[in-house]
Amino acid sequence: MKSNHSLQVSELFYSIQGESSYAGYPCLFIRLAGCNLRCSYCDARYTYEEAGQEMALAEVLAFVQASPVPLVEITGGEPLLQENVYPLLAALIKDDRLVLLETNGSMDLARVPAPVVIIMDIKCPGSGMAEKNLLANLARLTSKDELKFVLRGREDYLWAVDLLKENMLCPPSPAAKEVPKILFSAVAPDLAPADLASWLLADQLPIRLQLQLHTQIWPGQYRGV
Ligand code: SF4
Predict the structure, then answer these.
(1) What is the predicted pLDDT for the residue at 50?
(2) Is the entire prediction scored with pTM above 0.85?
(3) Does the Cβ of 37 fall within 6 Å of ligand 1?
(4) Ligand 1 atom 6: residue of nearest CA
(5) What are the residue ranges in the chain where pLDDT is below 50?
(6) Which residue's alpha carbon is nearest to atom 3 within ligand 1?
(7) E-strand spans in the chain?
(8) What's residue 1's pLDDT?
(9) Ligand 1 centre and the CA of 119: distance in Å?
(10) Is the C-beta atom of 222 inside 6 A of ligand 1?
């Protein structure tokens, strides 16, 4: 039975941030267990196929407080499935950490504290999960946040560009004050980064091509990186 202030944790680790505009920085990771989606390309199935470990909020905070590293990422799985992620976010902000929250885009962002940098997925058709996108979240993202599309091929690319244009996110509406950064990445081996690069160059859109840095540094390793 869980206590009132516990979290189901898949892993705590220290590594290089690999999948955002913060890629390359040393980062403390809190990976929470459980996910409500089943993406076709998921490389973190252990987060929902294994129960993880129940930890007190204080224990998770102690992991962070043992390090001076300012960057902390909460990821999953889907971290917003756990109610106690909210006191965790609040405590990390109070501790003056720069907090990144990776979320799969299916959960309401209304209660995420304003200082948190949200890195939100939009699930493309190739994931098999596109109907789960909660597009109302787009209006909650600000210029400090990031919107990430993971693409399996040309069909996903065209779908993503259409969605961005329909929502006036890319190119941004001249009236828009708060537009998140847009990231596109390629699922290996389905889509070659060179193909994605050539499409982005041809379309001349302000979209950042994102390679998974940790998979290049530690190929074949999925946990703890
Ligand atoms: S949202 Fe993330 S953890 Fe969940 S199934 Fe999709 S890729 Fe895997």
Answers:
(1) 96
(2) yes
(3) yes
(4) 39
(5) 1-2
(6) 77
(7) 6-16, 26-32, 53-56, 71-75, 98-103, 117-122, 146-151, 181-186, 208-209
(8) 44
(9) 14
(10) no
Of 217, 214, 183, the residue nearest 200 (C-alpha): 183
Using DSSP bridges, classify how beta strands 6-16 and 26-32 pair: parallel, antiparallel or unpaired: antiparallel
What confidence score (pLDDT) does residue 216 get? 83
Cis peptide upstream of residue 76 (ω within 30 degrees of 0): no
Please report, as a single letter, which amino acid is at residue 157: Y
How far is ligand 1, taken at its centre, from the CA of residue 39, in Å? 5
Degrees (nearest 5) of the Cα angle 212, 214, 216?
A: 75
Greatest CA separation for the chain: 55
What is the tens place of the pLDDT at every residue in 167-185? 988 888 777 778 999 999 9
98: its two tokens: 């720069």
- Please report the domains of the chain, with CATH numbers, ordered by start residue: 6-217 (3.20.20.70)
Give the Å distance between the CA of 112 and the centre of ligand 1.
Answer: 20
200 Cβ contact partners less than 8 Å away, ≥ 6 residues apart: 184, 207, 209
